[in-house]
Amino acid sequence: MLHRVLRYALAAVWLTMGLGCKVLGLVPRHREIVARILGEEFAGLITIAIGIGEIGIAAWILSGFRPRLCATVQIGLVAVMNVIEFTLARDLLLFGAVNAAVALAFIVIVYLTERTRPCSPR
């Protein structure tokens, strides 16, 4: 039961960030971060592409396909994304320097979700 709740919660985060914040542009700060890091010219399109990728991760989580790989990809993406953002766009982050702690908490939840996954019968 705990595993299922964690999976749905993680998928909801990825879906919200991807669809709401990036594809629909409900949080313009995300596009501003992309523009700061990758340049203004294609920031809108790149932000939408990142959002579509995040929606894909939400679908992957819900599919249950290769869950260990899915968790590894999530952890890697969150870690790399946060290092880049912290280095190049710290002033645009919602929680500023505390963003690192939020990212670490998310990574821990992803890890624990994988660890609580019921073993599949062989």
From TrEMBL:
The lineage of its organism: Bacteria, Pseudomonadati, Verrucomicrobiota, Verrucomicrobiia, Verrucomicrobiales. The keyword Transmembrane helix applies. This is DoxX family protein. The chain crosses the membrane at residues 41-62, 69-86, 92-112. Keywords: Membrane, Transmembrane, Transmembrane helix. InterPro entries: DoxX-like. It holds the Pfam family DoxX_3.
